[in-house]
Amino acid sequence: MSSAATLSPATSLDSDSFGFVCNLVRTKSAIEIEPSKAYLVESRLAPIARERGLASLRELVAEMRRPGKQDLSRQVVEAMTTNETSFFRDIHPFEALKSQLLPELIARRSRERTLTIWSNACSSGQEPYTIAMILREHFPAIAGWNIRIIGSDLSSQILARARSGLFNQTEVNRGLPANLLVKYFQREGVQWRIKDEIRNMVEFSEVNLVETWPSSLPKMDIVFLRNVLIYFSPETKKTILGKVRNVLHTDGYLFLGGAETTMNLDTSFIRNQVGKAVCYVLDTTKK
Ligand SMILES: C[S@@+](CC[C@H](N)C(=O)[O-])C[C@H]1O[C@@H](n2cnc3c(N)ncnc32)[C@H](O)[C@@H]1O
User: Fold this and answer.
1) To test the ligand 1 pocket, which listed residue (33, 40, 80, 81) has its Cβ within 8 A of the most ligand atoms?
2) Rounded Cα gap, residues 151 and 153, in angstroms
3) Alpha helices in the chain (DSSP H)
4) Lower CB count within 10 Å: N or C terminus of the chain?
């Protein structure tokens, strides 16, 4: 066999193999791949073929079709996810948290002294770490509360990165204010590691939105579910929003991505404008 490093797998997929990959990815993650995205599948799969010493994508797909290849299938599904994220992404939701939603929630939870926030599809962790920094920075009075920030994603690889709390220069240059970089990160070679005081505020776990959610998930005060529904069919979005409804406290908040909405999908959510941010609250007149 030729060396994996020098192999350059034939990089085009025949339509049958492309269909097989699309089906697999849809079944395992609900991500819909449009026919026009064949180039994307090819570019994401080529490194996997190379790594496994396979000479073509056709061979890779043949390998995936063999029984007992769950690990390979999982690797392919994870490779097809888009992990784009940044600290303080789209800023307005975090302004809304800081100026209005957290102060109100904290007042309402002053007896229970608990706060639970779920950053779903959190990719490499910038979103839950942003939330942790906001709590640490602006709400010192609740330091003794039972605060849970849960970061979850389908991809075990990206969660390993999130748990490490290690970010490169480009990542910390995107959205993170310089004072927070200096205060909450320390240099490690050419990278930056988030300090334990923030890292330990976030727990990461694997949750696939389209599989059964862990029964251990607590009721949530705030759910971030941003920039992931866009990949799904309307039916899948409806199912997921229905599941969010069940884990959200009746007075909780849901944040979606800028291009996402509950409109025409789930009438139990009401759009709520907070400054320049949009979040969704449950319509308590509905069951
Ligand atoms: C574009 S990133 C969004 C990251 C972050 N929420 C943000 O807005 O910056 C999309 C993430 O969704 C995850 N994802 C895709 N399908 C998923 C599924 N079925 N269940 C859970 N996470 C999924 C991907 O692994 C990826 O990390």
Assistant:
1) 81
2) 7
3) 15-29, 38-51, 57-65, 70-79, 92-96, 102-108, 126-138, 156-164, 169-173, 178-184, 196-199, 234-247
4) C
Kindly state the DSSP code that residue 230 receives in the 8-state scheme: G
Taking CA atoms only, the protein residue closest to ligand 1 atom 16 is 29
**Residue 279 token pair:** 């979040």
Is the beta carbon of 124 within 6 A of some atom in ligand 1? no
In tens, the pLDDT along 73-124 reads 999 999 999 999 999 999 999 999 999 999 999 999 999 999 999 999 999 9
Residue nearest to atom 7 of ligand 1 (CA): 85
Answer whether 6's CB lies under 8 Å from 55's CB.
no
Q: Which residue ranges form the domains of the chain, and what is each CATH number?
A: 15-79 (no CATH), 92-282 (3.40.50.150)
